[in-house]
Amino acid sequence: MLGKLALAGIKNRRRDYLVLLAGLTMSAAIFYMFANLATNQAFLKANAAISSANVIFGFGAVLLILITVVYIMYANSFLLSMRQHDYGLFMMLGATRKRVGELVFLETLILGTIATAIGLGLGLLMSKFLVGFLLNMLGLHLSHLTAVYVPAIVATGVLYVGLFILASLFNLIKLTRTTVLKLLHSDELANQPKVKPFRQMVQGVLGVVFLAAGYWALASIKALQLAAIPIALVTITLGTYLLFRATILMVIRALRHTGWAKKHLNGFLLGQLNFRVHNYTRMLTIVSLLFAMALGAITVGSGYHRQLPMMAEKIGTYTVAVHDKNAREQKLIDQLHIAHQATYTQKRQGKTVYYNASELAQTPVELRAYSNSGNMNDQKLYTESLKKFKKSGISDLDFLSLALGKVGAYSPKILTAKQFAKQSGKVVTVTTVRVKNLQQDLPALKKLNQLETARFSQPGTMTVGNYQNYEMMLAFFGGLEFIGYFLGIAFLAMLASCLMFKILSGAPGDQRRYRMLYKVGVRQSLMRHGIAKEIGILFLIPGIMGVIDVLFGLQMFKPLMAAPMSPYLGIGSTFLIFIGLYAIYYLITLALYWRIVLPQAPND
Amino acid sequence: MTTNTVVSVSGLEKTYGKANERQYTALKGLNFTVDSGEFVGIMGASGSGKTTLLNMLSTLDTPTKGDVVVNGHDVTKMRGNQLADFRAQEVGFIFQDFNLLESLTAEENIGLPLALKGTPSKVMDQAIHEVAETLSIADLLQKYPAELSGGQKQRVAAARAIVHHPAILMGDEPTGALDSTSARELLDLLTTINEQQKMSVLLVTHDPFSASFCQRILFIKDGQIGSELRRGDQDRSTFYQGILTELGTFNE
After folding, report:
1. Which residues constitute the domain of residue A401?
2. Model-level pTM?
3. N- or C-end of chain B: fewer Cβ atoms within 10 A?
């Protein structure tokens, strides 16, 4: 009988349960997506350019587990707050605590298991879609990457069901220790946080100190090595939490005493935030960290995506070298945005390749000045006189690569025009092309390179021209780029559903308040604006903190992205896209909130 | 319509349920007026239609038929923002369950109707402190509703209801959740407000004690006005006996 009652109770609150289930499902799905990458050793070994990727994933996993624990805790308290009135009623009707306890335990566990199961399914689909989409967009090929990875499925299942068993036990204990009356009237109080100025001062100062320590750790990753990451994680988390605790309440308190607070619904807005932000401090801290990690990961990923061509451009002197170009290749070359082009005639005999001095004099070979400063921007292109070239330039690796045989490079010799005419040997013409912007011409270059390598085989360890350099670097750093994008999107989804869920879980309580406002005669539009502001502020606080975190956190990638690459280059557009996605989440939350909270006028 | 009529109800009908479903008529052609400065009670048993009537008067619900004119505004013709503004400016409410916003202090709760109008904060402070003096809650202004007793909460609610000088104060069982001392205090306060500020009061109740503070009582039965009782020159306790007698025969 009690089971039936419980089921009826759930039916009555279908919508709340749906929100809860959706939130948990999303969480499980995202965790699976992450675990799919993090636990796939073969994939990591094959694609992560740096050995520390494993460690980074380790920290990521720990962090994600912590977030999941907190998330489930929130979800659980939401569940309990929804149900405790019913449970209180059952006890009042004479059900034993033991019986009600069983119900609580089962309900939590069943809900959790369903959410995990659906979440895994969703995670598989999302992995498949996202992996396909990202690889396609980035033009990458990564080995050992599949959407279905059994160890990840097991890890996700075990973690979630385990956590839900814990949550059920927690609910059981909490419920059996609370009195019936408290259960019946639990949702009528709004706690008012006390402000203790001295303690808050200390908290604020400590928060700033911790944040500074964290940012310093990130910037000095070269000295601290991998220790920088856990140090930064702990200090930034603590710092953010303390700073939020210390400042947000103070600001709201201060605002409440101004004239601004006495206009329209502003006072109500501040009152709402006042008791809400206190509950939200932990959540906002986590969200700001997730925001930072998501944005950071995407920024780094897109940094590689945009900057690898730039890096490749600075190595070598020409983009592609085409031997005995045919009509199809000429057509492709015509599509390129050419900065410099040269064509030389070669005569190959034995292990020697002969060049015509007059051709070399007419279009001198471009050389690159490799400086010792390590700054690639200093490495300018130059040409030298034929006489000088014969001495030094002739041994330039890029020049040697123009004539590659099966075993290696032919050794070049420069003959005068007359001697060259007499010289016997296989005649080959080679055209070198340097494009203005590698990124711009990538599709045409790719085809050109395919045609070239199909006709002339070259030793596997050698690259000719900086397009091939780029391809090699892509294979090397592409894994990192992919991980950046993937994690960024996963973290964003996680953070937004965390925040959305937490905010929505407060909606039923707000329903009553807005109903009161409605009765007192507050215009609908005023309520709408009020809600938009309130939720906007809750989204904005972690957003701002997250952006600051990222700006400092990118320091960490300076050693990995040496000049001319820079983790800070072109982050504006990445930030804009990311903030756009974040704003979409805000709008969805807002629309849902409006629907739950706003009272309907009688004649509508 | 004369200028000294605050509320005028004519032919008011309310039917619940859609046309093709089983319908229930809560109000069946109600007619009455409330004069300016009058203290009127509406009595009736549960389900007699008292609350439905009050919802019509306060625009929280729309009538099926008939007219409701409050302080010169025909509320049945209003829509959207007009309705909200009407509630905010012309009517003051006291509810059985207080309807205070627990996230705001007493002061902020009382100031809400003025804030909605965009009143300058100095004027607002003055109005709040004036009304707080009248209701002797000046020392409670900085407290949150959770820190107040039921009687104190209802006095704060009353302060919020009259701070913007509405045309009429409406109470829906305002003493329903109070102990007898607090209830008496509140009713005395309402009487004072009615007498000193000449504010019309409309009290919906099923409690004869509360009703005995009114000058005139309308008895509703099954959606119609069954009878009317005037206090005239009687003192309150005599009037109370009169109400009890009326109730005793009214429900037969």
Report:
1. 320-472
2. 0.74
3. C
